[in-house]
From TrEMBL:
Lineage: Bacteria, Bacillati, Actinomycetota, Actinomycetes, Pseudonocardiales
Keyword entries, A-Z: 2Fe-2S, Iron, Iron-sulfur, Metal-binding, Oxidoreductase
Pfam families linked: 2Fe-2S_thioredx
UniProt-listed Gene3D superfamilies: Glutaredoxin, NADH-quinone oxidoreductase subunit E
CDD domains per the UniProt record, alphabetical: TRX_Fd_NuoE
Protein name: NADH-quinone oxidoreductase subunit NuoE
Cofactor or coenzyme needed: [2Fe-2S] cluster
Binding site for [2Fe-2S] cluster: 101, 106, 146, 150
Domain of life: Bacteria
Gene name, Swiss-Prot/TrEMBL: nuoE
GO molecular function, one term: metal ion binding
Coiled coil regions in record: none
UniProt-listed InterPro entries: NuoE-like, NuoE_dom, NuoE_N, Thioredoxin-like_sf
Database matches in NCBIfam families: PRK07539.1-1
Keyword Metal-binding among UniProt keywords: yes
Length: 253
């Protein structure tokens, strides 16, 4: 089941009832807490969209309007942000989000093949969900641009946690275990939870599990190889000059 809608309209008016149904008093209090972190309320938009997504499983039209109301922004302004960033989803997501890197390096190392095999296994394409959204074992599937882990390619992420050096077999086994309700440990980083929990964390709420407790090893031999080589060889970067002259700024006409 998916629910798609048009973010571009600004004419839809949400009755208070629908926002009340969607967002509890507790969520409203958390929205206020997010706003209080910033000198300008509009700066709270990105974490607030994550909060909305943690509640709804995606960012609905009602969610867009909730953010607009909380931050005194227009629906169009919030829609522009929510539709720009791929982390904000426009239809209900599964318990887990599986993102396969298909950018150049990972693709060449097998990422394209992994994406194809997982799509066949799940029976869905990009940005689609296998299973009932939110139900245990349901998976939203997507291909992603470079996940900033090229030294471990091909990589995929589950709820933004890394699974490095994948093969079609290891990736398929990983997805099957998610479908069975298991939570295999990521290669590095925090333990696997589920997408809504991660969305709460991205909104800044760790529910007693403070950020430090979620830390895990984030570098490996591959990551540090260049730095180690430079150290062994005694290579250093040229010193930064005390002052540098910037090119003149062209005059505005
Ligand atoms: S190309 Fe896949 S992580 Fe960079």
């Amino acid at each position: 089941m998916t629910e798609q809608f048009d973010f571009t309209t600004t004419e839809h008016v949400v009755t208070p009832t629908s926002q009340e149904q969607a967002f509890s008093e507790a969520t409203r209090a958390e929205a206020h807490a997010i706003v209080a972190r910033y000198p300008e309320s509009r700066s709270a938009l990105l974490p607030m969209l994550h909060l909305v997504q943690s509640v709804e499983g995606y960012v609905s039209k009602v969610g867009i309007e909730f953010c607009a109301e909380q931050l005194a922004l227009s629906v169009a302004e919030v829609s522009a942000v929510a539709t720009f960033y791929t982390m904000y989803k426009r239809s209900p997501c599964g318990q887990h989000l599986v993102s396969v890197c298909t950018n150049t390096l990972c693709a060449a190392l097998g990422g394209d093949e992994i994406y194809k095999k997982l799509g066949e296994h799940l029976g869905v394409g990009h940005d689609e969900t296998a299973g009932e959204p939110g139900a245990e074992g349901s998976i939203t599937f997507e291909h992603a641009e470079c996940l900033a882990a090229c030294d471990f390619g091909p990589v995929l992420q589950v709820n933004y946690e890394y699974y490095d050096n994948q093969t079609t077999e290891s990736a398929t086994e990983l997805v099957k275990s998610l479908q069975r309700g298991e939570k295999p440990a990521p290669t590095r980083g925090a333990p696997l939870t589920d997408l809504r929990t991660v969305e709460r964390q991205l909104a800044g709420f760790f529910d007693g599990d403070e950020p430090a407790a979620n830390d895990g090893p984030s570098s490996a031999t591959e990551t540090l190889r260049g730095a180690r080589l430079a150290q062994d060889e005694g290579w250093t970067a040229p010193a930064m000059p005390e002052s540098a002259e910037f090119p003149p700024v062209p005059e505005r006409k």
